[in-house]
User: What shape does this take?
Amino acid sequence: MFFGQFKDFLRKIKHFHVFGTGLGIENVSNEEREAYKKNYALISEAIGNIFTEGKISQETHQKIWKARDQARLELCDEIKNYTEEIFLISHEAFSLYYSFIAGEHGLPKGPERTERVNQFYELIKRLNKFEPHKKYRPYIQY
Assistant: This one.
């Protein structure tokens, strides 16, 4: 009985670490580490695409969606919350772009369109400030 409780305790503290030490989390299994690496790759590539394209394509939006869902199912709360924040900002930017700026439904030139474009670029700037390498490093390093 005691051993079972101890295993539960270890499972709960598995993702504990000290920020800024540069040390990886020792209790993360190789399988879990691979899940973090895959999630990092999705988020990192998506943010890189946003940075280079200046917008959020459907492919990039899908990568962020996939990373968020994977984090919800497999990863710790810290990464789950991180991917959720990225998803919410990117979804708002994606919706603004395709509902009001681009395509056949875009607003005509004028003050309302200018306001929407400014909102969109503020969201893009926020997304470009994310640094996934810093957030994921403790979970990926050995």
